[in-house]
Structures are given as C-alpha cells and as structure tokens.
Amino acid sequence: SKTLQFCCAITGCQTNILVYIDILYFIKTSFITSIMADSLHKNFETLRSIFEEVLKMKNSTGERDRADELTEKRKYASLLFVLIKKVNRMVKYSLRSGREDLHREKVRVDSNRLHLQNLLYEVNHLKREIRYCHKFKSQDEDIELVPEDDEAQMDDDKTLMPTDMTPLSGHAKHLARLERELNLRKQLSAQCKELLNTKQQVFRDIILKTEKLTSFAPSLRTLLKATRPLQDALQVPMDREWKLQQLVQLLPQPLYLAYMNLHALKLAKECDVCVIVVG
Asked: Which among 135, 154, 179 is the end of a domain?
C-alpha cells in the first residue's frame, strides 16, 4: 500500500508538472500572439500616418523641395510593408501551430477519455464478477459428507485417507473431506457393482435349477402312478405323505413347529402318535 501511495504521489507530481508546463506554454504562446497583434496594429497605424503625410506632401506646393523627405517616407513605408508581411507570416504560422497543438491535445484528450472508459468498463466488469462470486453456490453444498466425528474412526483405513493430512485451513479441510467422500463413494460403488453381479449370478442359478426341477414333474407323476400298486402292497402311502407335506408348508409358524416336533418324535419311535393336517 505504501508503494502504491508513493507511485500515486509520483504520478500526481508528474501530472502537476505537465499541467504547469502546459500553462507556461499557453501563456508564452498567448503573449507572443498578443505582441505580434500589437506590433501589426502599430505598423498599420504607422503606415496609415505615412500615407497621410505623403498625401499632404504631394498636395502641397513645395513638393520638389521636400523630395528627399518624400523618398525617405516611401522607403520607410516599404520597410513597414516588409515588416507587416513578416508579422502576417508569423501570425499564420502561429495559427497553424496552434491548430496542430489543438488537434494534438484533442487526440490526447480522446485517448485519455477512451482509456478512462476502458478502466470504468473493467471496474464494472470486476464488480459484476465479484457479485457473481458472492452469489456463487457450490454443488457440493447439497452433498451429505461424513461427519467429522465419524472421520476419526476411519483413520485406520489408508485407502480413504488423503495423502497429506497436515493441519489445514477451512477451505483446504473442506477439500480434504470432499476427497475422502469421493474415495469412500468409489469404494462403495465398486462393492455395489460386485454385489449386483453376484445377485445376477445367483438369480441365473435359481432360474436354471427351477427349470431343471420343473422338468422332473411329469416324470415323477408318471413314476408315482406306476408305483401305486407297489405302495399299496407295501402299505407305504408316499402320495399321501407328499400331499401332507404340501399342506404343512401352509401352516402358521407355531403350528408348523408343533407338527415338526411331533413328526420327529414319531420318526424316532419314542411315542405312537398320528399327526394329520385338517383344513
């Protein structure tokens, strides 16, 4: 800030010096122009008085006696013509120089004005960008990050830790949390894809086994019909047992547990019971 103030002070001094030089130049030019105008006016007045004197001499009776004086007046008038011509040339030169200086100053003023307008546009642009920055809303504000308390429990997982966990500022700490969240989500996404692939594989296996078991049904029905005389002879009602097992699957959980326990006792021959399902 001190350097900026010093530069501004130097710039202000240079501007003041340039303004002072311009004022001196204007005063000098105005003074010279005023002197030339006064000189030209005096020369015209002197030339007029000489013309009047010469006219009086010619109208007087003693013109021959005053021939030398008349010649001197003519010479002096000729010199005044030369001087008036020179002053006129200087006035024209001064006017042309003044026009050139005026044009040069107009160009400089237009350039400074254009530069000032560019600076104003740039200032307005920067102000607008600053307003946009103040109104900026990051998309990560809607992301639910892992709480900082839970992050301490994940320190042992090196795959989720940033490479450099030094003491960070607020913004750097937020970036570290976002990086941790990104790594965690990548790992969870990989696990989800793996589980989905496993689920699809299991689903395909289930479909294949279901189709395989379904293909056994006609053969089993044919086998049951063919072995029914043998079942009657051996008194092994397999068809009735299968129908009973299908009904047992429809029982509520308490009745299902009671049936299974009684059926297990019957198979173990610890008691002679007959378990049937009615309904």
From this structure: 135
Does residue 31 belong to any structural domain of this protein?
yes
Q: How many domains does the chain have?
A: 2
* Rg (the chain; Cα; Å): 60
Q: What is the DSSP string of 160-219?
A: TS-S------HHHHHHHHHHHHHHHHHHHHHHHHHHHHHHHHHHHHHHHHHHHHHHHHHH
Provide the domain limits for residue 37.
2-135
The CA-atom distances, in angstroms, between 38 and each of 19, 33, 197 are 28, 9, 108
Does the structure show a pLDDT above 80 at 186? yes
pLDDT at 162 over 60: no
Q: What percentage of the chain has pLDDT greater than the value 90?
A: 16
**Domain assignment of residue 171, yes or no:** no
In the prediction, which pLDDT does 160 show?
A: 44
Q: Taking the chain, what is the end-to-end CA distance rounded to the nearest angstrom?
A: 97
- What are the strands, taking DSSP E only, across 40-99? none
CA distances from 187 to 30, 33, 152, 181, 192 (A): 86, 90, 18, 10, 9
pLDDT band at 128 (very low <50, low <70, confident <90, very high): very high
Give the count of beta carbons closer than 10 Å to the beta carbon of residue 153: 9
Quick one: pLDDT band at residue 20, thresholds 50, 70, 90? Answer: very low
Residue 177 lies in a domain: no
